[in-house]
Amino acid sequence: MSTETLTKPETDSSESTDDDTPKMFHYVRKNKIAESAVMGTHVVALCGEVFPVTRSAKPGSPVCPACEEIYKGLRPGKDK
Questions:
Q1: Are 62 and 23 in contact (CB under 8 A)?
Q2: Residues annotated as region Disordered (predicted)?
Q3: pTM of the entire predicted model
Q4: pLDDT digit string (tens) for 9-43?
């Protein structure tokens, strides 16, 4: 009978996976953003991604290319 020691793979500690900063921001229905931020409910982006709102986008933030493409194809809303 033989035994082996399993080793934990090395990970780069400089890349934190605990950071909740989004890699890019998505287009979501405006009326669902506040509800998600307060209640923790999930929202559905135009591209179909489902997630809870944890951050707000700042000017110049990266935007999901699929969401942006869909948004550009939408007709203007009532408030425009």
A1: yes
A2: 1-22
A3: 0.62
A4: 554 444 444 455 558 899 999 889 989 989 999 99
- Phi/psi-derived region of residue 54, left when phi > 0, alpha when psi is between -120 and 50, beta in every other case: alpha
* Identity of residue 42: H
CA distance 40 to 49: 16
CA 37 from chain centre, in angstroms, equals 13
Cβ burial of 53 (10 Å; 0-12, 13-18, 19+) is: buried
Joined tokens for residue 72: 């550009």
Q: pLDDT tens digits, residue range 57-76?
A: 888 899 999 999 999 998 88
Six-digit token string for 8? 């934990």
